[in-house]
């Protein structure tokens, strides 16, 4: 930069030989007395050292010399003022470069330094150079540092110290030395040039704004130092951070040009502070929908409380966190907070616990356990004044007062403070929990949270946790879930990959390794497809847990094309405050189609589809299991389906639309079928043919419908005559009601193909 070139300025003062009428005795401002009429000064045309020069006798405490031409002061530009002087007679004065400096309106800025370093003359005739550099940046070598209010100046010299001495002054030189500071930074605007201090104490916000305004499309430079910024700052263009910023948590930093973790890490000086500022900015910038970690790792020493970080609790715009790793650091407190309280539950108010002392000590997001409490029930909200807690799901244990335990897990990314957070997505994020922390807690309310191509690596307790209704439309696509409890026996594992409380989850193409449960799913309308979840161990006749737990009765859900490995699907009504059936829908609304089921080394009583009714009167209505492959490796099992009657049983008289068909069974003794096709051979003449379904009907159900009876070959009586009559059918026969009788008008023998259903289709 050169002001003579860029601004067309003539910086060089005229020589004294051209006249003294442009040299002021005071400030240099128009109308001030000049040296042309000064009795204490004169032009010397033939000094042997200086050629022409100005001779001045110091007659006052401060004798001033100012060029009356006003020079503009430009942020980022640096001027050097110098002159050669020598003492001629009398007492030696001190000599310094000096200036009058004013703002844009012409008002003198008396708070700014007006003189450079003073030089004491020590011998007669010795030539001494007096020099000072002036500019708006606190750079090395700058003698007079002005702020960006400085806009105009008159330069010259001051003589101070004892009076009476006589000195001679060669022509004053003013030159632009900006290139000495910015030759290697062409096209860069330095915040120091606009008044930033970088001392960690001064608020440099105004200086940054001035530099940003001046930069335009040029790159902003934040040089070495610690720059305190006390309020929101937006940098729209490119920026290079060699120094770091110190900002309060509430202050926003928005880097529009380079909205990435490396840029924020450079700005704040470490990964955690940079990540927090960048993620915070994501919720405020109107120019970006994604905060890109650029493959970077952030070592978290505490959970990221997203609600506190953002500062508001309602967000409904598509925002993406992508391409990086959040790692639970070795330091930091990730311990579970456990509390116990006495509380009262009333099914009439099914989501509320009441009568709780010191309810403020129970964290929102804590998991509830106790008698009659289903899996994955969390504290959704609390009312300190009323002493109540709002739960994510009802309890099934009925009314009563008891001790409940509350466990608050610690999550790398905790969104629980949001009353509504919608359309938030994590993409290509690895949650490296390392067995120290859980991964993500969803907001209390909201919808369409998405996890795409993410890794959930060894969460201590949970992968994705829903504590309320914020899982509406949850999408989990192409993610990896690796348990922290892989070495344990299957029955000893407690970690859970994810849970839902609301409807319409899409769980697709994921892989989950050795969890207690892959998913505990409340709500309905789920699509679960293309996943591989497995949970076995090396035990002989090992016990297995459910891979999927579906807790609403009428699900309108599909489980399609999954690889279900050493675990099972469980249907439960454990979120029902009144688990006895009293009307409406019961178990069903589910299709299980085209899946691979496999189990190895399991006990014979292992099953892949298990109903677990709580209470009485429940039944199955609308269950279609078709086109699946069931296969055991090693031990055989009895059957693929079962009813867990620990807390209740089914009403087999009410089965409707229950279909098990076109499945392949390998290593299964009693393949499940409904419609069940029985080839019955009656080798003796009888009026009653007892047709046994052979334990093939689903869930130990009853033979309630015979949809067809077809004679294969002719029916014959005792005299070998062909019988043309058709039998009538008696259903629900035998001690287990799983047989049907064919009643003939006369004793008959032959072969019948009988199709039996466990339900009434209408």
UniProtKB/TrEMBL annotation:
SUPFAM superfamilies found in the cross-reference section: Pectin lyase-like
Keyword Thylakoid (UniProt): no
Listed GO MF terms: hydrolase activity
Pfam families noted in UniProt: Pect-lyase_RHGA_epim
Every Rhamnogalacturonase A/B/Epimerase-like pectate lyase domain range: 189-243
Keywords: Hydrolase
Organism superkingdom: Bacteria
Protein name (Swiss-Prot/TrEMBL): Glycoside hydrolase family 55 protein
Annotated source species: Roseinatronobacter domitianus
């Amino acid at each position: 930069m050169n002001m003579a070139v860029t601004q067309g300025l003539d910086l060089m003062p005229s020589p004294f030989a051209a006249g003294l009428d442009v040299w002021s005795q005071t400030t240099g401002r128009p109308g001030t007395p000049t040296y042309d009429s000064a009795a204490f000064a004169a032009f010397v045309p033939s000094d042997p050292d200086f050629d022409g020069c100005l001779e001045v006798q110091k007659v006052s405490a401060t004798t001033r010399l100012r060029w009356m031409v006003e020079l503009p002061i430009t942020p980022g530009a640096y001027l050097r003022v110098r002159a050669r002087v020598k003492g001629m007679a009398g007492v030696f004065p001190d000599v310094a470069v000096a200036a009058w400096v004013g703002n844009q309106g012409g008002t003198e800025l008396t708070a700014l330094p007006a003189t450079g370093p003073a030089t004491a003359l020590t011998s007669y005739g010795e030539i001494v150079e007096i020099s000072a550099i002036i500019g708006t940046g606190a750079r090395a070598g700058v003698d007079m540092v002005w702020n960006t209010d400085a806009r105009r100046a008159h330069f010259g010299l001051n003589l101070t110290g004892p009076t009476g001495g006589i000195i001679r002054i060669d022509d004053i030189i003013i030159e632009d030395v900006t290139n000495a500071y910015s030759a290697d930074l062409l096209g860069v605007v330095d915040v120091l040039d606009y008044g930033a201090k970088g001392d960690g104490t001064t608020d440099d916000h105004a200086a940054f704004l001035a530099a940003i305004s001046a930069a335009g499309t040029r790159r902003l430079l934040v040089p070495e130092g610690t720059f305190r910024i006390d309020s929101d700052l937006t940098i729209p263009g490119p920026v290079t951070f060699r120094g770091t910023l110190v900002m309060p948590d509430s202050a926003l930093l928005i880097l529009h040009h380079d909205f990435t973790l490396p840029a924020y890490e450079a700005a704040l000086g470490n990964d955690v502070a940079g990540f927090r500022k960048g993620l915070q900015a994501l919720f405020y910038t109107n120019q970006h929908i994604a905060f890109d970690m650029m493959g970077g790792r952030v070592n978290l020493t505490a959970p990221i409380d997203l609600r506190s970080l953002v500062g508001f609790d309602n967000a409904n715009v598509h925002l993406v966190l992508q391409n990086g790793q959040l790692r639970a650091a070795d330091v930091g407190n990730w311990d579970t907070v456990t509390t116990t309280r006495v509380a009262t539950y009333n099914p009439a108010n099914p989501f509320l616990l009441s009568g709780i002392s010191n309810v403020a000590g129970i964290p929102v997001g804590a998991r509830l356990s106790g008698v009659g409490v289903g899996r994955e029930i969390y504290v959704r909200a609390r009312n300190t004044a009323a002493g109540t807690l709002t739960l994510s799901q009802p309890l099934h244990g009925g009314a009563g007062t008891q001790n409940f335990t509350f466990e608050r897990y610690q999550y790398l990314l905790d969104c629980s403070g949001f009353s509504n957070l919608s359309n938030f997505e994590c993409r290509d994020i690895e949650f490296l929990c390392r067995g120290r922390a859980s991964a993500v807690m969803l907001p209390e309310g909201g919808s369409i949270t998405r996890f795409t191509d993410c890794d959930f690596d060894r969460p201590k307790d949970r992968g994705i946790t829903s504590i309320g209704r914020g899982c509406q439309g949850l999408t989990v696509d192409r993610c990896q879930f690796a348990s922290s409890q892989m070495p344990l026996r299957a029955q000893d594992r407690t970690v859970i990959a994810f849970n839902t409380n609301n409807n319409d989850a899409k769980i697709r193409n994921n892989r989950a390794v050795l969890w207690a449960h892959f998913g505990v799913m409340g709500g309905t309308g789920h699509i679960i497809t293309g996943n591989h979840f497995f949970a076995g161990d090396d035990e002989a006749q090992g016990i297995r847990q459910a891979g999927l737990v579906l807790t609403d009765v009428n699900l309108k859900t599909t489980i399609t094309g999954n690889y279900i490995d050493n675990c099972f699907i469980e249907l439960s009504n454990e979120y029902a405050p009144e688990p006895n059936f009293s009307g409406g829908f019961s178990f069903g609304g589910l299709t299980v189609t085209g899946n691979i089921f496999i189990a190895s080394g399991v006990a014979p009583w292992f099953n892949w589809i298990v109903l677990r009714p709580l209470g009485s009167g429940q039944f199955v209505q609308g269950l279609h299991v078709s086109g699946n492959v069931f296969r055991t490796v090693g031990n055989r099992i009895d059957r693929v389906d079962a009813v867990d009657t620990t807390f209740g049983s089914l009403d087999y008289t009410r089965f409707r639309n229950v279909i098990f068909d076109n499945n392949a069974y390998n290593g299964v003794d009693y393949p499940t079928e409904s419609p069940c096709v029985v080839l019955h051979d009656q080798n003796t003449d009888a009026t009653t043919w007892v047709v046994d379904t052979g334990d093939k009907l689903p869930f130990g159900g009853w033979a309630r419908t015979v949809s067809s009876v077809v004679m294969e070959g002719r029916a014959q009586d005792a005299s070998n005559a062909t019988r043309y009559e058709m039998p009538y059918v008696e259903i629900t026969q035998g001690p287990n009601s799983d047989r049907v009788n064919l009643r003939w008008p006369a004793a008959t023998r032959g072969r019948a193909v009988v199709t039996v259903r466990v339900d009434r289709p209408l």
